[in-house]
Write a structure and sequence with these properties.
2 copies of one chain form a homodimer.
Chain A: E1 3-7, H1 16-29, E2 34-38, H2 44-48, H3 60-64, H4 70-73, E3 75-76, E4 82-85, H5 91-99, H6 107-112, E5 121-125, H7 132-140, E6 143-149, H8 152-156, H9 158-171, E7 177-184, H10 191-204, H11 217-221, H12 229-232, H13 237-251
Parallel strand pairs in A: 1-5, 1-6, 2-4, 2-5, 6-7
Antiparallel strand pairs in A: 3-4
Helix pairs in contact in A: 1-13
The complex binds adenosine-5'-triphosphate (2 copies) and magnesium ion (2 copies).
């Protein structure tokens, strides 16, 4: 059964896109067939894999609107075995449309149904909000991966997010479970990072992945070359962390 | 005339809240009467100034709904001269309500009209999206301050944001002008930061503030004490940068 993972946190800039790209890539490097669905109108996951300027009909927008299928729009990436459904800015327009239809929360789930046999893993990169696009991802997914930056503001929003996940499980998607909470951009030298990490591990215990992703400038450089870290600098600390994460994700299957 | 500044960028985690809090605080420390309006359902600007758990009726939500006024809900902060209109999570619910009314884009402008005589500056902290809350801020404001992180993804969204600002000026608010673009979290040692900063200065030239805010852990620590940087560590590089920014903002009046 295809594992469908929503990568989400309404707090901005916590490493959702970086995690979605590099986790999917590390799994593909290990021979797993993976798909990355870019559900953010900013289209950072698309740009980070070198795919720019997708036409609405050839993007997640077209898939959500029911005009086209995953099979027709998924494109290959720099990593054999990793495909991408690119986003475009028009996706922001989909929000107004989905809010006004009856089962607007199910658009992505319906669009993905029966389309995923070729993939063992699907990752959905979400925008920084708890709006209709993120709800669509939580309805279509069976698992949720929550990146958390080891900083004060990032901790604030966690309770709101976990509440939203619980609501979606109750009302829309009973299969939804938390795959894990990932501490990102960890600078172990700072007191605030150590305090927040300890807080997260205390409150969320078993959910928190053993691996934490260190702050590593190579992860910030890679997307400007359209490459995941495994193809940009496979020996760096950032790459090691995402390979370790891939192993933990597989073991939590 | 009260200067109303929307602090916005749909890219997440670029320093919108940190800039809104500390710029408003530095102006207030210099004797300017300032108001900070928290328009983000995450309510980070509120928590960062030590204000938590505001009731919907005593928050930006109540003001947008027309149930109450700025004068009735604005609370003092750790800095004399700086007031805050706190946010609450219910603000996310306002989005669905505002989208469906005719002049939903003007709710904040109407709510602020005639309420601001006591203030020389009003700053509006926006969520990481280009949705109805951010449009409300752009309609209510006369100026836009755009924080940009010196990283690749942050550059991507700038064109989309400038387009949105131009659209709002054309259709909803002819007075809207760009106050400036602020480079944030600058780690001058990294190549990507130097490249992105050079790019931003080349494309946006006169808009870019002379001052850039360095990456400085004290800025990340201060909100966990409910204090702006001027009250947490007035001697640090982060504080110096925001005092310099305050001077530049005043000179661009
Ligand atoms: N471990 C890391 N070390 C250094 N930089 C990182 C790391 N992870 C992410 N970054 C950088 O930090 C910034 C924010 O990361 P990213 O864009 O992945 O977050 P996001 O949660 O997807 O943001 P948004 O909320 O806008 O969607 C990016 O510029 C990215 O390159
Ligand atoms: N100059 C800086 N140096 C170090 N840390 C910073 C700096 N500016 C902001 N931060 C930290 O970086 C994180 C992101 O900043 P902030 O929350 O202000 O961004 P934002 O754009 O408001 O995010 P969102 O998109 O979620 O609203 C926070 O944890 C903040 O404390
Ligand atoms: Mg992202
Ligand atoms: Mg913010």
């Amino acid at each position: 059964m295809t594992r469908i993972v929503a990568v989400t946190n309404q707090k901005g800039g916590v490493g959702k896109t970086t995690t979605a790209i590099n986790l999917a890539a590390c799994l593909a490097e290990a021979g797993v067939r993976a798909l990355l669905v870019d559900l953010d109108p900013q289209a950072n996951a698309s740009a980070g894999l070198g795919v720019r300027g997708a036409e609405p009909a050839q993007s997640t927008y077209g898939v959500l609107a029911g005009d086209t299928s995953v099979g027709a729009v998924a494109v290959p990436t720099a990593v054999p075995g990793l495909d991408l459904v690119p986003a475009c800015a028009d996706l922001a327009g989909a929000v107004a449309e989905l809010v006004n239809v009856d089962d607007g929360d199910f658009a992505l789930a319906q669009a993905l149904a029966g389309q995923l046999d070729r993939y063992q893993f699907v990752f959905i990169d979400c925008p920084p909000s708890l709006g209709v696009l993120t709800v669509n991802a939580l309805v279509a997914a069976r698992e949720v991966l929550i990146p958390v930056q080891a900083e004060y503001f990032a901790l604030e929003g966690l309770a709101q997010l976990l509440e939203t996940v619980a609501l979606v499980r109750q009302r829309l998607n009973p299969d939804l479970r938390i795959l894990g909470v990932l501490v990102t951009m960890l600078d172990g030298r700072t007191r605030i990072a150590r305090e927040v990490t300890a807080d997260v591990r205390e409150h969320l215990a078993a959910h928190v992945f053993d691996v934490a992703v260190p702050r590593n400038v190579r992860l910030a450089e890679a997307p400007s070359y359209g490459l995941p870290i495994s193809r940009y600098d496979a020996g760096c600390a950032g790459s090691d962390a995402y390979f370790d994460l891939a192993k933990e994700v597989v073991s939590r299957g």
